[in-house]
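Hello,

Our lab assistant flagged a job as stuck in the queue for most of the afternoon. It eventually completed. Since we weren't sure the result was trustworthy after the delay, we are filing this so someone can double-check. Below is the sequence as submitted and the structure that was eventually returned. Let us know if re-running is recommended.
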Amino acid sequence: MNPLPIQPLSPLDGRYQSAVAPLAEFLSEAGLNRARVEVEVEWILHLTDNKLFGTDPLPDAVKDRLRLAYLDFGQDEIDWLAEKERVTRHDVKAVEYFVRDRLAQLDLDHLAELTHFACTSEDVNSTAYALTVKRAVRDGWLPTFRDVIAKLRAISLDLADAAMLSRTHGQPATPTTMGKELGVFVWRLERVLSRIEKTEYMAKFSGATGTWSAHLAAEPQVAWPQITREFVEGPLGLTFNPLTTQIESHDWQVELYDHVKHAGAILHNLAQDIWTYISLGYFTQIPVAGATGSSTMPHKINPIKFENAEANLEISAGLFSTLSQTLVTSRLQRDLTDSTTQRNIGVAFGHSRLALTNLLSGLDQISLARHVLLEDLDGNWEILAEAIQTVIRAEVVAGRSHISDPYALLKELTRGHRIGSSELTDFVNDLDIGDAAKARLVALTPASYTGLAESVVRSKLGK
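-- returned structure --
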């Protein structure tokens, strides 16, 4: 058997590449290196803007040309760095040489020693990772997450009045509406969304052990903590971490990944519930022209979008858990376990985004079968036992009834067997309760026993 041509090992880089492409722009190795170049270039410009070591700010035109080192970063630059790293065996050192090369091309050799000045690799890495993760979340993950919430919100409002039999513990229970049940997921997801949107993307820039020792050795009179804070929070738009070891402590990453994992767990719950509603016939699936549901059963339309979402959410949850568990710890002032771990950030977000795209597609391909919901409700009149025994209790308190144990009375009537409309009407008419209460109960049907389900959806989600 002849070997295959070189193939992507990960499905994210093969079968599902188009779904995760917006993340690869930032969370790939090339995206990380581009951000590293950006940090190195902007550090040089920050030092010269502050006129350190006798330098002067560069003219704007020269700054623009130097910034092309990362703004025009493409395949040639990727190849250059790959070749240099094969020699240096150090990825950040290769980036330093790349920036030095660009300085030479612009006749800025006199600034060469400001490249990577007083930096440890983690100064550049922590800043580059903060930039790439922030941009990936902002531009590649959050928009799709928001789209899922918006889609769910629209469906929830549309189906706010669609009465449905609840199934607590899988058994027929007090009715709700489909819109209200989907609205619960919107409410949950928006709480997590607000936390993700408040993420602090943190970086450190304080040298080999977080003490600014080399900085002070070079220029003792400079307020280096202020200079580095202004750099991190100014042109880079990140949050400065002033108290660290050699590495930024990664706590912001742990918080972010836990929130994204939490969102994924809620979405996993959603995917399972919709899968179940489809199996109950509550939702029908809209056929896609040319699609095949089963290789042998032509009638089938399988809920594969929701199944795919489930699987990818499980994979991403596992990866986010590993990231959180590993990144929160670093031995003494530095170990390197975080380096390999962080290279999988994109994989975790990739499987999460793939799940989001499947959920969006799946939600577009279902339609509520309202008649099935009504038929299900009409076959379960015994669920009104809750309403009847509660009304009796109120009547007893009001002095309009002498029934001693309303719950037991309804339990004897309904538990373990079905009753219909006529049986329930006869039962209510024979009750020792007031006429107004009887009238309310006789008028009640399973489809109308939905309480405030519709109004709470419209009041909370109808923005």
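-- support follow-up --
The delay was a queue issue, not a problem with the job. The result is valid. DSSP finds 19 helices and six strands in the chain. The beta strands are 163-168, 171-177, 202-203, 239-240, 283-285, 366-368.
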